[in-house]
């Protein structure tokens, strides 16, 4: 009952938050330069400019402009990408697939490694292994990911020549039919193991780089909640029942420590999304982040704003889902305090 | 049953008499300082911060400033792409003959300025908005807090990126973008704190004595809100530099200035040919800077958290 | 058990012929910032077969730490086992009388397991008693693990905290059987005793990668279900023992759905599931309502009588200890200051601290306002000096009490006290109950 009320309340607030974000995004497009800058050229007469402005309703009041803008967005009209020379809505899914492949791989690295490191560290509290893990975790949260990527490239690409750059070897990938846009999945679906290995090979280094910061966040949270759980009476009670330490950790403490750790996964998701921008530039990964950076430098507003709107809405939904999952997992949690 | 009265009763009397309240605060501060400094990681953070401060303040004595603008990288076209250890260029030079050591030192000064300005402005703006929301309550509170919610829905870096991109590449724009993005957390902290303190007993006591609202605010509420704001501000000192460097790296920085993110970005071109130093050293500075403030911020949070008592 | 006579008469507490556990000179220290806290500082007592021994004292006197040492449930670090021993003699139901108590072995229904190294002849490992003797503080963790929950069980103070909030009651009680009753479980499920592999691992809560898939395939699937059904049966039976209404439906509930009294019943069912020889009850009713408390006490008492378990009952509540304990040990500042049969200690307390405690307990004839509190508080136990721990709070102390440390000495066959009133100090003024020195 209580849980349902909470979810309903969150769902009611959600559209308002999305409208709020859209107002901010809209305001940004009206602050900097002209939103139609990319259609204008120096040879145009003021009349011609006014004509274009009228076509895009720029001669109306701001609220009316917002209305037209929002209607366009709802109809899937996100504007024109100057960088890709195509409508934003057309290019977006392809770029999104590339970014998703990278973020999911990084998220996988972060969750498995983070939970493992956090457990390892928390179970050995205040021992040397714990200190080392904590240092790794704190440095992860302070590491500029673009610098970490460059260091890894210096070592594994420039010096050792082990790691590749880019998303796939073009010749290999050309033979794989694109279904999902995720190279690893597509090559598996096509049964082309060479292409799969190649896609995976290209994915490893950027995924590790991107996942490192998130690993640190998860490991830290996992450690502190595990330490807290290990001090609970029920852990001693489990020991008193005759459970081996390994089982006490696995079935009692770690299980419960995972519950608060779920909450940081939402945070981690934002971290990964943000991280893709710099990582994609460095590894020449043709995803949203790189597209974004190119657009920023070219003054391509439509792409930029679509990106901001999209990531924020995605972020909101992920956080909502995480909260619901958390509330379901933890029967002790008090909702909407 | 053996229930003996505890010898000391936690005093709420302190707050009524301002003199003793100040003394209590001083004692608590001393205890806190001892606790913070007992954590070796926090001490390491402080050491790095002091080294950075030293570098920033004494930059003109460490490396002669570039004329006319010391924040512009000097170019020595006769000594481009020099490896570390070259006489006069201890950390080597960039493709354009910029001295990496110069960038490292003056970049520290720049980062200090940036983070101080951004953190100070956001603390002030956030505190004012948060306090107003808590003070007026009702619709004002509701409206301001929804605005805060909306701001928090956009991932930090992406928000700052959008603002800086709209305004065009420049260091000042990055600074402005960061202020727009970072004030929200302080508004939340201050609002929660003021509401909490507003409802507490000793503020009632102050009212009974006949204190004016502004007096209560300045003397009781502000000092009592200091600690959570301080923790967040410390963490943000690091975050601000990290995000600014990322924006610079992406290409929103000002080309040619002695800023770490810009230097990493410019040095990137050389790594294929084995010139690792131009990116490595400025990036290391960003890392150390963020690490130091994170260590201290975490140490403060742990020391203030009653749950970690007796660790 | 053979009539074994105590030779060491200085140790007045060791007069019982059949002891299930003995604590000798136990020292537990805690590393703190201010120094080493001597939380338990040389505690000795015996728990006799079938008896309830009350361990009373104020908060922080070391009684819980003593109780936890039986199962080595101390946080290490900061806790340090600084010395002493906690020996335990596992018992088994007497075959001759089947638990009724008989003369053949002079037992209370249970008798000690024969020492495996000397076959009852008496040797060094069993202290000459011929009964298997285990030092709980020295055995390896696997041996200890097998004893925990099976031979020595524990009930915790707050059942709300001692049950895992994310597991159902059934899952939690089942763990005891999975740890200690794997063979019975397989037998009850009607499977061959030779059953091994993934099924046996399932029956002892030892999950390996791939077992889940294997056990979901026939024929293992059906056999796994039979084990699960047998397990459910055992859990329901254990719960039914504690008189909970509808034990089968209780198994699927989570701890937060139950009342405090119900939770404590679950804890008791869990603790007594394997018929332990010794039950450590650490203030099991402190977190409960008074009305519930009475029923829980009755339940523990009843189950203990039927199973002949021994109980170490830790409490700060004297009136409660008086009601349910056969003997009582009074702890103060990390020491046992007085020990003896409950009736005798209450009738004739020999330690000023015990007297102070008793004066602070309201009884039917206490006049209004007649309750006396002991002045001062428990001293800090950081590097305590060689002096009576109670000096400074005692109404009868003298110079000698502040210079010498009294040891636990007998005042009668069964009763011992650590005070210079009954056992003169090496030199100096002797304290006495007649002289009040403020």
- Strand and helix order of chain A: HHHEEHHHHHHHHHH
Output the number of helix runs of chain A.
13
Oligomer: heterotrimer
CATH architecture of chain B: Orthogonal Bundle
> What spatial form of chain B do the alpha-carbon principal axes imply?
elongated
Mean pLDDT score of chain B, rounded?
Answer: 82
Helical percentage of chain A: over 70%
Strand tally of chain B is 0
Q: Give the count of structural domains of chain A.
A: 2
The CATH class assignment of chain B is: Mainly Alpha
Shape annotation of chain A: globular
- Poorly predicted parts of chain B: 1-17
User: Structural class of the helices, strands and pairings of chain B?
Assistant: mainly alpha
By CATH, the topology of chain B is MetI-like fold
- Tally of individual helices of chain B: 11
> Structural class per helix/strand content of chain A?
mainly alpha
Q: Give the uncertain stretches of chain A in residue-range form.
A: 333-337
Head-to-tail CA distance between termini of chain B? 32 Å
CATH architecture identity of the largest domain in chain A: Orthogonal Bundle
> What is the H-and-E element order of chain B?
HHHHHHHHHHH
Task: List its salient traits.
heterotrimer, B: about 300 residues, mainly alpha, C: about 450 residues, alpha/beta, eight-stranded mixed sheet, 15 helices, disordered N terminus
Short description:
Chain A folds into two domains: 17-77, no CATH class; 86-329, MetI-like fold (Orthogonal Bundle), CATH 1.10.3720.10. In chain A, 76% of the residues lie in helices and 1% in strands.
Describe this structure as you would to a colleague.
- The complex is a heterotrimer of chains A (337), B (311) and C (438).
- Chain A folds into two domains: 17-77, no CATH class; 86-329, MetI-like fold, CATH 1.10.3720.10.
- In chain A, 76% of the residues lie in helices and 1% in strands.
- Chain A has 13 helices and two strands.
- A two-stranded antiparallel sheet of chain A has the order 1-2.
- Chain A is globular and about 85 Å long.
- Chain B has 311 residues and is mainly alpha-helical.
- In chain B, helix 2 (40-57) packs across helix 4 (100-136), helix 4 (100-136) packs parallel to helix 11 (277-304) and helix 6 crosses helix 7.
- Chain C is α/β, with parallel strands linked by helices and 438 residues long.
- Among the domains of chain C are: 91-132, no CATH class; 167-253, no CATH class.
- Chain C has helices spanning 63-69, 141-147, 159-162, 169-180, 182-188, 197-202, 211-215, 220-241, 247-250, 260-272, 290-307, 318-324, 342-347, 352-359, 399-403, and strands spanning 19-32, 35-48, 52-56, 79-88, 91-93, 110-112, 134-135, 152-155, 278-282, 310-315, 327-332, 335-341, 409-410, 416-417.
- An eight-stranded mixed sheet of chain C has the order 8-9-10-3-11-12-14-13, sandwiched between helices.
């Amino acid at each position: 009952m209580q849980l349902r009320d909470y979810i309903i309340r969150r769902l009611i607030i959600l559209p308002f938050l999305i409208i709020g974000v859209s107002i901010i995004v809209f305001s940004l497009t009206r602050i900097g330069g002209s939103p139609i800058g990319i259609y204008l050229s120096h040879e145009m007469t003021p009349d011609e400019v006014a004509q274009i402005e009228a076509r895009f309703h720029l001669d109306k009041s701001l609220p009316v402009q917002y209305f037209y803008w929002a209607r366009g967005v709802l109809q899937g009209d996100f504007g024109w990408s100057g960088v890709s020379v195509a409508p934003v809505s057309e290019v977006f899914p392809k770029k999104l697939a590339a970014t998703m492949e990278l973020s999911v791989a990084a998220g996988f690295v972060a969750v498995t490694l983070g939970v493992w490191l956090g457990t390892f560290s928390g179970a050995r509290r205040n021992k040397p292994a714990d200190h080392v893990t904590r240092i790794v975790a704190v440095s992860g949260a302070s590491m500029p990911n673009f610098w970490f990527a460059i260091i890894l490239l210096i070592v594994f690409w420039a010096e050792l020549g082990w790691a590749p750059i880019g998303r796939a070897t073009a010749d290999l990938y050309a033979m794989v039919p694109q279904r999902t846009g995720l190279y690893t999945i597509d090559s598996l679906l096509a049964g082309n193991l060479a292409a799969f290995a190649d896609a995976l090979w290209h994915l490893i280094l950027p995924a590790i780089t991107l996942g490192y910061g998130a690993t640190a966040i998860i490991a830290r949270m996992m450690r502190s909640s595990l330490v807290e759980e290990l001090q609970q009476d029920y852990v001693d009670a489990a020991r008193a029942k005759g459970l081996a330490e390994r089982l006490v950790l696995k079935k009692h403490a770690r299980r419960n420590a995972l519950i608060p750790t779920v909450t940081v996964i939402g945070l981690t998701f934002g971290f990964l999304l943000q991280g893709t921008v710099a990582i994609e530039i460095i590894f020449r990964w043709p995803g949203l982040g790189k597209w974004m950076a190119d657009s920023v430098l070219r003054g391509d507003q439509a792409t930029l704003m679509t990106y901001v709107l999209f990531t924020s809405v995605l972020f909101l939904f992920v956080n909502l889902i995480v909260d619901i999952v958390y509330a379901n997992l933890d029967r002790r949690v008090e909702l909407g305090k | 049953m053996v229930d003996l009265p505890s010898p000391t009763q936690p005093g709420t009397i302190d707050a009524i008499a301002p003199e003793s309240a100040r003394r209590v605060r001083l004692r608590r501060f001393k205890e806190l300082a001892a606790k913070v400094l007992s954590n070796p990681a926090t001490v390491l953070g402080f050491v790095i911060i002091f080294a950075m401060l030293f570098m920033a303040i004494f930059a003109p004595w460490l490396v002669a400033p570039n004329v006319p603008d010391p924040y512009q990288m000097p170019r020595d076209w006769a000594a481009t792409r020099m490896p570390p250890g070259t006489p006069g260029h201890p950390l080597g030079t960039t493709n354009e003959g910029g001295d990496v050591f110069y960038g490292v030192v003056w970049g520290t000064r720049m980062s200090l300025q940036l983070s101080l300005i951004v953190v100070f402005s956001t603390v002030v703006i956030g505190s004012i908005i948060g306090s107003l929301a808590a003070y007026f309550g009702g619709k004002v509170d509701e409206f301001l807090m929804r605005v805060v919610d909306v701001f928090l829905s956009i991932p930090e870096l992406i928000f700052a990126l959008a603002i800086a991109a709209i305004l065009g590449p420049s260091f000042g724009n990055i600074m402005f973008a960061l202020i727009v993005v970072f004030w929200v957390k302080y508004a939340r902290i201050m609002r929660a704190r003021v509401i909490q303190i507003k409802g507490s007993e000793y503020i009632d006591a102050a009212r009974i004595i006949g204190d004016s609202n502004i007096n209560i605010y300045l003397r009781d509420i502000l000092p009592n809100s200091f600690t959570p704001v301080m923790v967040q501000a410390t963490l943000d000192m690091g975050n601000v530099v990290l995000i600014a460097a990322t924006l610079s790296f992406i290409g929103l920085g000002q080309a040619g200035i002695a800023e770490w993110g810009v230097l990493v970005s410019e040095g990137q071109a050389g790594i294929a040919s084995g010139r690792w130093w131009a990116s490595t050293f400025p990036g290391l500075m960003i890392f150390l800077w963020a690490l130091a403030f994170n260590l201290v911020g975490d140490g403060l949070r742990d020391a203030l958290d009653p749950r970690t008592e007796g660790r | 058990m053979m009539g074994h006579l105590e030779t060491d008469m200085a140790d007045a507490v060791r007069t019982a012929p059949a002891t299930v556990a003995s604590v000798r000179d136990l020292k537990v220290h805690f590393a703190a910032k201010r120094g080493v806290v001597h939380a338990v500082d040389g505690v000795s007592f015996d728990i006799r077969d079938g008896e309830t021994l009350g361990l009373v004292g104020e908060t922080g006197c070391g009684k819980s730490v003593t109780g936890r040492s039986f199962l080595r449930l101390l946080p290490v670090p900061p806790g340090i086992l600084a010395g002493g021993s906690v020996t335990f003699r596992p018992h088994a139901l007497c075959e001759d009388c089947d638990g009724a108590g008989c003369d053949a072995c002079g037992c209370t229904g249970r008798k000690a397991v024969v020492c495996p190294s000397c076959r009852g002849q008496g040797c060094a490992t069993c202290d000459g008693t011929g009964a298997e003797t285990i030092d709980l503080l020295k055995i390896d963790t696997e041996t200890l693990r097998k004893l925990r929950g099976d031979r020595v069980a524990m009930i915790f103070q707050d059942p709300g905290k001692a049950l895992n909030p994310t597991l159902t009651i059934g899952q939690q009680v089942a763990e005891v059987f999975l740890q200690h009753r794997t063979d019975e479980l397989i037998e009850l499920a009607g499977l061959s005793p030779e059953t091994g592999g993934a099924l046996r691992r399932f029956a002892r809560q030892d999950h390996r990668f791939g077992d889940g898939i294997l056990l979901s395939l026939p024929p293992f699937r059906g056999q796994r279900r039979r084990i699960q059904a047998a397990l459910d049966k055992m859990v329901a039976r254990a719960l039914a023992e504690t008189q909970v209404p509808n034990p089968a439906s209780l198994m699927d509930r989570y701890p937060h759905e139950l009342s405090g009294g119900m939770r404590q019943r679950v804890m008791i069912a869990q603790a007594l599931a394997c018929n332990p020889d010794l039950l450590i009850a650490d203030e099991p009713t402190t977190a409960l309502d008074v009305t519930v408390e009475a029923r829980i006490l009755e339940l523990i008492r009843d189950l203990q009588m039927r199973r002949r378990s021994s109980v170490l009952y830790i409490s700060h509540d004297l009136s409660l200890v008086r009601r349910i304990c056969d003997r009582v040990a009074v702890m103060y500042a990390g020491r046992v200051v007085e020990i003896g049969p409950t009736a005798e200690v209450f009738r004739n307390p020999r330690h000023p601290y015990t007297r102070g405690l008793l004066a602070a307990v309201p009884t039917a004839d206490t006049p209004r306002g007649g309750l006396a509190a002991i002045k001062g508080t428990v001293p800090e136990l950081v590097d305590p000096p060689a002096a009576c721990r109670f000096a400074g709070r005692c109404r009868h102390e003298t110079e000698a009490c502040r210079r010498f440390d009294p040891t636990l000495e007998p005042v009668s066959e069964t009763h011992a006290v650590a005070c210079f009133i009954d056992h003169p100090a090496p030199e100096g003024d002797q304290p006495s109950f007649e002289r009040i020195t403020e």
